[in-house]
Amino acid sequence: MKKDIHPENYRPVIFRDTSTGDEFLTRSCAPTKETGTFEGEEYPLYSMGISGFSHPFYTGQQTFVDTAGRVDKFQQRAAKAKKMAEERAAQGKK
Asked: How far apart are CA 5 and CA 86, in angstroms?
């Protein structure tokens, strides 16, 4: 094996799924700025948007994760576009 290719800063890190709130502790060198408590001990905390706790492949069910209201923004844009198309159609019939 090659020498000096693996990071030296492996440490216990909490990985938290932000969509479900579930978390697990494992060793990692992932960069973190936050800390969290796991079983009474404080560790670095890494927040994930999706993990095995919430991914449909592992859960067997489709769940919807709306981050920052993306679906609402899309629906508003679609409604606005539909309204503008109807107004153009109404002006063309006059």
From this structure: 61
pTM of this structure: 0.55
d(CA 48, CA 28): 14
Q: How far apart are alpha carbons 36 and 42 in whole angstroms? A: 6
Q: How far is CA 76 from CA 12, 56, 88, 90, in A?
A: 43, 27, 18, 21
Cα gap 73→77, rounded to integer Å: 6
Residue range 14-37, pLDDT digits in tens: 998 888 888 889 889 888 888 888
Beta bridge partners of 34: 45
Cα–Cα distance for residue pair 55/53, rounded to 1 Å: 6
HEC string of 39-72 equals: CCEEEEEEEECCCCCCCHHHHCCCCCCCCCCHHH
